[in-house]
Write a structure and sequence with these properties.
15 helices; alpha/beta; elongated; 8-stranded mixed sheet
Length: about 300
């Protein structure tokens, strides 16, 4: 199949490469001409604008949007819908909020253009390992472009999970679970690091846990890789950002009255990591000093 890949960051670029290796044709567009030229050197057809990219597609036209969530994705989809005709397909593979996606789908419905949501997991390893795809949208439209999904995904790693918005909803929850898993691993390894009397080799432990252990997983494999480079790991600061999906998962849990203490705590831990000298921690220390005379640690100035 021939499709336009709109957005050639690490995900969009690698996905394009995997699709081309699978026999599909890619028309590449990105605001960075360097990114376009780089992919063109690997076999993609370069384009200079969104209009130019779409002009190079046969009918029915297919475009995969791989852009940051919010206005960049919404505005691009709306613009594409004006360039497309009834029956063409737009796939949003970014981390879009599922409600925003459903609103955009309703906005372009009069055009007859199909909008699919493809929750995409795999990161920078997806080029070689494949991408897990959680796809939402009208069944006929999903079926029409299914060869794209089966090419990107490893065997068993793709499913049409439901109607419009379902793909992004499932991916949101997936990322919320990811928060909890990573936090559990991190806390466990910190406890072991604090047991100085045993002089534990954390890299060795992460390696053996990968085989036969009930906590083995791909995240554990990545932990082992991170700990293998002790010098590089030592340079990493403990500031952990979040890209929105964990927050949305917690908000959904509250809205639906579903208890999600692990995911919620993991999200709050990320918030706490960004301010090691937070007012709340300082105030707790001050209160302990006031009522119990407990020692406080003070800095300069």
């Amino acid at each position: 199949m021939k499709l336009a890949m709109i957005g050639l960051g690490k995900m969009g670029g690698f996905m394009s490469e995997r699709l081309m290796k699978g026999g599909h044709e890619i028309v590449a567009f990105d605001l960075s001409q360097q990114a376009v030229e780089s992919l063109a050197a690997k076999g993609a057809e370069a384009s200079t604008s969104l209009v130019d990219a779409i002009s190079k597609l046969p009918s029915p036209k297919i475009a995969w949007v791989m852009l940051p969530e919010g206005a960049p994705t919404h505005d691009t989809i709306v613009e594409l819908s004006k360039l497309f005709t009834s029956g063409d397909v737009i796939i949003d593979g970014g981390n879009t909020n599922y409600e925003d996606h459903m609103a955009t789908a309703a906005e372009i419905t009069p055009s007859g253009v199909h909008l699919l949501d493809a929750g995409t997991s795999g990161g920078v390893w997806g080029l070689t390992e494949g991408y897990c795809l959680m796809v939402g949208g009208e069944a006929s439209a999903v079926s029409a472009v299914e060869p794209i999904f089966t090419c990107l995904a490893p065997p068993g790693g793709y499913a049409h999970v439901g109607p419009i918005g379902a793909g992004h909803f499932v991916k949101m929850v997936h990322n919320g679970i990811e928060y909890g898993l990573m936090q559990a691993y991190a806390e466990g390894f910190e406890i072991m690091a604090a047991a100085k009397e045993f002089n534990l080799d954390l890299h060795e432990i992460s390696a053996i846990w990968r085989y036969g252990s009930v906590v083995r997983s791909w995240l554990l494999e990545l932990t082992e890789l991170a700990l293998a480079d002790s010098e590089g790991f030592a340079k990493i600061e403990g500031i952990v950002t979040d890209t929105g999906e964990g927050r949305w998962t917690v908000e959904e849990a509250v809205r639906r009255a579903v208890p999600a203490p692990v995911i919620t705590t993991a999200l709050y831990a990320r918030f706490a990591s960004r301010d090691p000298n937070s007012l709340s921690n300082r105030l707790v220390s001050a209160m302990r000093h006031q009522f119990g005379g407990h020692a406080v640690v003070t800095g300069g100035s």
